[in-house]
Amino acid sequence: MSQAWARSQTPVQYCQSDESQGIDTCIAVVAAKHNESSATNDLYIRISAVFPHRLGWAAFGTGNAMEGSLMFIIYPGEGEHGITVSVRTTQVEHDAPQHEDFLPRYEVKETTIVDGIYHEAVIVCYECDSYNTSSKLDVASPKQPWIWAAETKQQTQSADTSIPLAFHSGFGSFTLNMRAAVSDGPVHPDSPLLAISRLSHNVDEVPDIRHTMFKAHGIFLTIAFCVMMPIASAIIRGQVESAFTKHSGLQMFTIPTVIFGISIALFFSTWNLSFDSRGVHKVIGIFLLFTTIAQPILGWIHHQNYILYHGRTAVSYWHIYLGRITVGLGWLNVMLGMIIGHASMEPTFEAEDREERYELVGNEER
């Protein structure tokens, strides 16, 4: 066993797996003094990832957000066995990360493909905690924030460390107990090893507020478009007693529900429109926001004209057909949202289960 693991029976590592998206990636870390008299620390990192058909990329970054994060990215390189390592950051949240000259110096110690599946890279980030941003690395922290992201369909296969990266298909955040990662051994420890079980150790997973809010977004809009709007439409079409009062009264609750639900998505979503289901979902959602706001205005004008002229006018038909379009597109967007939400779900495991499974496997290391 490496001297770097002398302080801990289990490695300091985080693993994320999602079979539905082909995501299987891990990071293990060891920290050590840059030299015997230095106040700064080097970070030794091993990243392991499965790239189905040698497509996609995997990344881990310091901090709890992309902005200012020091990101370590690997993807398939040239040929059958190439692996490329790229270290990047971004100064604007959700902007694509880029290589910058002011990033800490790093060295790729080793790249290998284990068992023909796991693409692994060992990286040394020299004086890594000297990178002073809001996402600064603190090797003394028992809860150092980290983020992860992965994509499994992009044609990477390049030795270029600056290729543009496709939008991630999975992402999240966690904290590592960096105290357990500090080496008591030599200034230059052996490379960190991954437990063969590929489970997380010395880790706390951070609940992602974005996931919670997107669930609320889906619940609010499903109720609004699939329950409240059809009932309101049935009331006015069914000519029930006090139909206008009941119809408009229900819509007074429906419309704020829609506006609130869509506003959640506008606030937490990224603004990169594409031609896939996510991009279509966003465009329809923005259109529905405008039609939902327009409908009560058209409805009120229709009602006033109906009283005045004792019949429908052009505005009446605008209100009727725009309402049908709104409900129909609302149903479509709810279904798209369910598809997107299912594709983004990440399996979670209780910490106790992880430890029990680790004990069954034993403290083997690959």
From TrEMBL:
- What is any one of the record's Gene Ontology cellular component terms? membrane
Superkingdom field? Eukaryota
Mark the transmembrane ranges: 219-238, 250-271, 283-301, 321-340
Chief subcellular location equals: membrane
Which of UniProt's keywords are assigned here? Answer: Electron transport, Membrane, Transmembrane, Transmembrane helix, Transport
User: Where, subcellularly, is it found?
Assistant: Membrane
Asked if the Swiss-Prot or TrEMBL record annotates the protein with the keyword Electron transport, the reply is yes
Q: Does the keyword Lipid biosynthesis apply?
A: no
Please name the CDD domains in this protein's record: CDH_like_cytochrome, Cyt_b561_FRRS1_like
UniProt domain Cytochrome b561: residue ranges: 216-338
Matching SUPFAM superfamilies, A to Z? CBD9-like (SSF49344)
Record-linked PANTHER family: CYTOCHROME B561 DOMAIN-CONTAINING PROTEIN, DEHYDROGENASE, PUTATIVE (AFU_ORTHOLOGUE AFUA_8G05805)-RELATED
- Provide the protein name: Carbohydrate-binding domain family 9-like protein
